[in-house]
Amino acid sequence: MNIEDLTAFAKAKGFFWPAAEIYGGAAGLYDYGHLGTLLKRHFEDAWLAYFVEGNRDYYLIEGSNMLPEKPLVASGHAAKFNDILVGCSKCHTFYRADVMLADMRIDVAEGASAEEIDEIIKKNNVLCPKDKGELMQAKEFNMMIDVSLGPEKGEHGYLRPETAQTTYLNFFREFNILRKSLPMGLALIGRAYRNEISPRQGLYRMRELNQAELQIFFNPEKFEVDMAKYKDVEMTVVPYKTKKQVKITAAQLAKEYEIPEFYAYHMALIDLFYKDVLGVPEERLRFLEKGGSDKAFYNKVHMDIEVNVESWGGFKEVGGLHYRGDYDLTSHTKGSNQDMSVNIDGKRIMPNVLELSFGIDRNVWMLIDLFYTVDGERKILKLKPWLSPFVVSLFPLQNDDKINEETEKVYESLKKRFKIFVDDSGSIGRRYARADEIGTPFCITVDFDTVNKESKDHGTVTIRERDGKTQERKKIGDLAAFLESKTKFQ
């Protein structure tokens, strides 16, 4: 599926579409419809259950979407959260330089400076893609979005450019409220805002985005993990040293590439989340190690989580695993004049940070791209049952008083535990087709045998499974247990 087809499908079915669509939309801003909201929340729930709720030392927090200026000066965002901007001297169209050059198949390092961009443009005789006008000198463009606080706009602030800063700003208080021990994880699911120069590729590059992040604060001298549990997990990795894709276990990665054991452990954890929980095929998933100017300056180890997404043209970043050292807490110690170091076993240390970061919107798009399939005349969104917007589509076979009454009873018995869509329009075949296309894993039909006390199938319904199209009769009283067993990931 290409971008245009996926976007059309998402709009037609109720997943997402451009914000303010009736006014022509706005680049980089999207609204989620009823199906997209459910898919997004089910991804968030699965992420939270997998990475956070199973660990007694990890906690979910929330924070303000606006921040005063000082924390973002201390974090380096005010000075360094930049992309390189180039504009056309003729039509005054502006471009993000690396994206424009990549579209022209011209290689450019991720951290290239404005001066380096100018050299590349000059060397390759690059002109404006729109009208072939001469490009102006490249310059840095800060992507943070300004806000003014107070009635006279006296205090300068920003919409937060990432959710991570909220976590760092709350670390010290949470540490002292909790057990004053490490490791301690603080997770946050929320919005971030970036004034992207060139929003593009649907939900890939947005101005308002959703992130799920876990920041693990730990003692750099002691971060114990149960490596035995994941040492044999085989992953696809592109190490920075070789730049060649290899299949390698977590244990081998730690030994042969000098990756910290705790880092390799979390790579395996992420790998299994994508394969087992999200259902991403093994050949579609890889880790790309960043190094040199491509690596964020504060990272000791930096891996992008990439998935091969057809509508994006290949492997694209959907998340990241970053060993950030003590950069963040040290920066906020200097900026706030409050010491963020802590006492562990009688020794004063500055905690280090391991960041697990996921772009929720990108993952939602990725799931639709990967699992929308056409099988003959059938169009199917083959999502895992726990991710599907609706678990059940419930059909009364015909518009009959007894059938409608029993359908309502089935709905009432299940609605508190499962997302259910009642569809009473059209033939059963058409209703099956609609359910398949939005990813519903099970269809339940209430028919005349269900309500006929003389029938051997009285009190049962037909339940049809999406992928195999298998059908069987089940007692109404057994439906909840059956669905429960099928819709929770192990």
Chain-wise SSE layout:
Layout: H1 3-13, E1 16-18, E2 30-32, H2 34-51, E3 58-61, E4 66-68, H3 69-74, H4 77-80, E5 82-87, E6 94-96, H5 97-103, H6 114-123, E7 139-142, E8 145-149, E9 155-159, H7 164-177, E10 184-193, E11 208-218, H8 227-230, E12 234-238, E13 246-249, H9 250-256, H10 261-277, E14 285-289, E15 301-309, E16 314-325, H11 327-336, E17 342-344, E18 347-349, E19 352-359, H12 360-371, E20 372-375, E21 378-381, E22 392-396, H13 401-414, E23 420-422, H14 428-437, E24 442-446, H15 448-451, E25 460-465, E26 471-475, H16 479-486
Parallel strand pairs: 3-10, 12-14, 22-23, 22-24
Antiparallel strand pairs: 1-2, 4-9, 5-6, 5-7, 8-9, 10-11, 11-19, 12-13, 14-15, 15-16, 16-19, 17-18, 20-21, 24-25, 25-26
Helix pairs in contact: 2-12, 9-10
Q: Going across the major beta sheet, what is the strand order?
A: 3-10-11-19-16-15-14-12-13
Mean of pLDDT: 94
Low confidence ranges = none
Percentage beta strand: 25-35%
Q: In which range does the helix fraction lie?
A: 25-40%
Radius of gyration: 26 Å
Total beta-strand segments: 26
State the secondary-structure class. alpha+beta
Number of helices: 16
Measured between the Cα atoms of the first and last residue, the distance is 30 Å
> What about the largest sheet?
9 strands, mixed
Query: Which overall shape is indicated by the principal axes computed on the Cα atoms?
Result: globular
